Amino acid sequence: MGSAKKSSASRTARIEEMRRAEKARERRTRILTIVAGVVVVTGLVVGSVVLVQSQSDDDSSSASGDSKNSGRFVTGDDGVRKWEGTLGRNHVTKAVSYPVSPPVGGDHNPVWMNCNGDVYTDEINNTNAVHSLEHGAVWVTYNASADKADVDALAAKVKKTPYTLMSPVDGQKDPIMLTAWGHQRAVTGANDPAVDAFLEKFVQGQQTPEPGAACTNGLSK
To answer: Which segments show compositional bias classed as Basic and acidic residues (predicted)?
Structure first.
């Protein structure tokens, strides 16, 4: 019991640290914006043209829906499967064909699913959920074979845990799965010790490509 409280406190402290870092980045961004505002008009015009052209080139090359994922899973002693290989991180607006379900990363929609303890009762778009994984969220998923009591208990846990989200995924192989960027694990139920262990390690864990990025102000359904 004491260990669980320490783990929860440690996770909460890490999340708060990430949030402080995000606020610091926002302050720096505002300062840079103010400084940029004093640049002469001609410089701004030229810079804007270059930026728009660059962004247009990026969009045209990344909107193909190619996930650019290659690799395979390697299972560790703790039962967690780690993706060994490449996971694309381009923003795309079309559907992406991911090699596993639920996906553990890859090209994704520019907008993330809200993941501040959000529980979705309907399936959500994979490309939006993958963006949430990029921000350091853990995605709890289940299929029709999952026990309702386990689903309810996991939903209650998710609602109390920032940087998590939960939804059904009918196409997944196991009844209940936990997914972080590049990592995945099946669990036997809500009381499986692996649930808390996975949350402790991967909520805003070292695997996070964009630590401290927002899990709010995205999509809510």
So the answer is: 13-22
